[in-house]
Amino acid sequence: MIDPEWSIEELMERYPASREILVRYGMWCPVCTLSGLETLADAARVYGVEIERLIQEIESKAQASS
Length: 66
Fold this sequence. Notes:
Strand content: under 5%
Helix content: 55-70%
Shape: globular
Structural class: mainly alpha
Radius of gyration: 10 Å
Distance between the termini: 15 Å
Order of helices and strands: HHHH
Oligomer: single chain
Number of strands: 0
């Protein structure tokens, strides 16, 4: 299960498909130099994205890829 307090960098390491989803939401975190410092929760707040929906989508994509 994804922890909203993971850094964006950690999220992308554990869930590579998250990169595509973040960009689709207009979140340019995958190419940001702060990806190792900013948490998923912080990024969702900054970009106005509902964190629960984002996590659910990333986890669903990961399950479908398995």
